[in-house]
Every structure is written in structure tokens, then in C-alpha cells.
């Protein structure tokens, strides 16, 4: 049973538990479930995280692997249980993502510590929401983001890249295609940059980005294409391609396993990016 965050883990912000399930009221029809990882401390960063599931599935539990990697890298992580399609198609999830981001910004000192830099992160469909929330934050001039972390993000519903074709996940039976169909119920939605960030025409002014994919990831090509376009728009960007086999993006929603060698590499990339982008944010605010 979720409790309101204001009455649970924020009641004693100096003693945040390793994880805490709560709910928050951000002005939407229903409260959002959240899970908080990490403890408030000096030098911590704050990451708002969105799980995968092709927009139609997933939960706080399925997002735990990535959320824990972010927490182990030194962040306080607020993982969001956003509305799922087809019951709640676009823009329900992205509206929830941006509302959660605003909520975290207003409470960043209580959640992570005074002066904590704010990041957004997500894998697969959650990577789409993280990218969209970063676009919204830029367009609406708030909140101030120190960075965005996108793992194997779903950015383009066409699913026509070479990496998708090589993965034998053609559009007829591909779970990614089914997810897109459930999310984009109206044809016009596919043209909206908040629904399909990979098609956004204006990328300048976005927060610094870390994009991670894998050689055997069907979303590899669109991930790298987005990284390239961000760089061309003047956005500081880091990208990394994990060697195969990884099983991405499906395994990102499964429990962590010691035989997955990529977790150490991904955790190291998280730590480096959080420290670098967080330091840049501190300098900018000084």
C-alpha cells in the first residue's frame, strides 16, 4: 500500500532508507507511485528515473536494476510508476514524467541535500519519457536539469533501422511496435516531439546527455542517431556501445545478476557522468 511521500520518507529527510515505496500527488487524476533509493547526503545528486516496458507494461520492480545502478553511482533516485498505455495513451505518461520532475525539483534539498543537481534517466520507453521531459524542461524554462541519461531509448516509432532488422523484431510481431501502437493512439501524436523525441527538429539548449546502448540492442541505431544529432546541436553528449551479448533492452527490466558483466561498466559510466555534469551545474550556479 503506497503512502504519501510527504508523510513517510520526507518526514525525516536526514534518514532516508535504502528504498521506500510511497505515492505523490502532482495534480494529476491519480497519485503517482514512487520508489526512493539512496540517502540524503552532502554531494549527492538527484535522479528522476522512468522504467521500461514499451509504454504498456513495467513497474517500479522492473525498473529496479537501473535505479539501483544509479543509486550505487552516488545518486538519490526517485523512480516513477507512470500511467501505462493503452489505458492511458500519449500524453498521459509524459505529462506525469514532467510533473514528477517538477515535484522533485521543488524538493531536491529535502530528498538529496542542499544544492543537489537534478538529472532525468530512463531505459527503453522510460528513455523516451526522460528525453521528452528534458525537452519540456528546456521549452518551459524549468526545472533546471544537470543532465539526461538514456539507456536504449525508444525514440522513433518507424522501427526501420538496421539494428531492428538484425534483431528479428520486425514490425509485424515486435513488442516495441505493439507498444508504440498502444501509446500513439492518434496518428497525429507521432509527429509531436514529446511523443517521438527522435524526430524532434530542435535539440539545441538541452541538458548534457549520456546515451548507452549495445551491439545486440535493436534500438542501437536510433540511440546513436539521437546522440549524433544532440552533438550537432551543440549539446554536450557522451555515448557508449556495450559489446554483445547483453540481451538489451529486455534484460534491463529483469533482476540484476552477477553474470551480467555490463552492469559494472554501466555503473562506472553513470558515476562519471553524474560527477562531471553535477560539477558543471555547481559551477554554473555559483
From TrEMBL:
Q: Superkingdom of this entry's organism?
A: Bacteria
- The reply to whether Hydrolase figures as a keyword in the UniProt entry is yes
Read off the SUPFAM superfamilies from this record: alpha/beta-Hydrolases
Q: Which UniProt keywords apply?
A: Hydrolase
- Which Pfam families has this protein been placed in? Abhydrolase_3
Q: What PROSITE patterns does the record point to? A: LIPASE_GDXG_HIS
What GO annotations for molecular function exist for this entry? hydrolase activity
Boundaries of every Alpha/beta hydrolase fold-3 domain copy:
47-238
Q: Does the keyword Hydrolase apply?
A: yes
Q: Which family does it belong to?
A: Belongs to the 'GDXG' lipolytic enzyme family.
The record's listing under PANTHER family reads: AB HYDROLASE SUPERFAMILY PROTEIN C4A8.06C (PTHR48081), ALPHA_BETA HYDROLASE FOLD-3 DOMAIN-CONTAINING PROTEIN-RELATED (PTHR48081:SF8)
Task: Spell out the protein name for this chain.
Answer: Alpha/beta hydrolase fold domain-containing protein
Native organism is Aromatoleum evansii
Lineage runs:
Bacteria, Pseudomonadati, Pseudomonadota, Betaproteobacteria, Rhodocyclales
Amino acid at each position: 500500500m503506497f503512502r504519501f511521500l510527504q508523510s513517510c520518507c520526507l518526514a525525516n529527510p536526514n534518514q532516508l532508507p535504502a528504498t521506500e515505496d510511497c505515492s505523490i500527488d502532482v495534480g494529476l487524476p491519480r497519485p503517482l507511485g514512487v520508489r526512493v533509493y539512496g540517502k540524503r547526503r552532502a554531494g549527492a545528486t538527484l535522479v528522476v528515473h522512468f522504467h521500461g516496458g514499451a509504454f504498456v507494461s513495467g513497474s517500479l520492480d522492473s525498473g529496479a536494476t537501473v535505479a539501483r545502478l544509479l543509486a550505487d553511482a552516488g545518486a538519490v533516485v526517485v523512480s516513477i510508476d507512470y500511467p501505462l498505455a493503452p489505458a492511458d495513451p500519449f500524453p498521459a505518461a509524459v505529462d506525469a514524467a514532467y510533473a514528477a520532475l517538477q515535484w522533485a525539483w521543488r524538493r531536491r534539498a529535502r530528498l538529496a541535500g542542499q544544492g543537489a543537481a537534478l538529472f532525468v534517466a530512463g531505459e527503453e520507453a522510460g528513455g523516451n519519457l526522460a528525453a521528452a521531459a528534458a525537452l519540456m524542461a528546456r521549452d518551459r524554462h524549468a526545472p533546471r536539469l544537470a543532465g539526461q541519461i538514456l539507456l536504449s531509448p525508444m525514440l522513433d516509432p518507424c522501427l526501420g533501422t538496421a539494428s531492428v532488422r538484425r534483431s528479428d523484431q520486425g514490425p509485424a510481431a515486435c513488442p516495441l511496435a505493439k507498444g508504440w501502437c498502444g501509446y500513439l493512439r492518434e496518428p497525429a501524436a507521432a509527429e509531436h516531439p514529446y511523443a517521438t523525441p527522435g524526430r524532434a527538429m530542435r535539440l539545441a539548449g538541452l541538458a548534457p546527455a549520456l546515451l548507452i546502448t549495445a551491439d545486440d540492442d535493436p534500438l542501437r541505431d536510433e540511440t546513436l542517431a539521437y546522440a549524433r544529432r544532440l552533438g550537432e546541436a551543440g549539446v554536450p553528449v557522451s555515448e557508449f556501445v556495450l559489446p554483445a551479448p547483453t540481451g538489451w533492452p529486455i534484460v534491463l527490466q529483469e533482476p540484476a545478476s552477477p553474470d551480467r558483466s555490463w552492469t559494472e561498466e554501466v555503473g562506472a559510466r553513470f558515476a562519471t557522468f553524474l560527477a562531471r555534469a553535477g560539477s558543471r551545474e555547481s559551477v554554473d550556479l555559483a
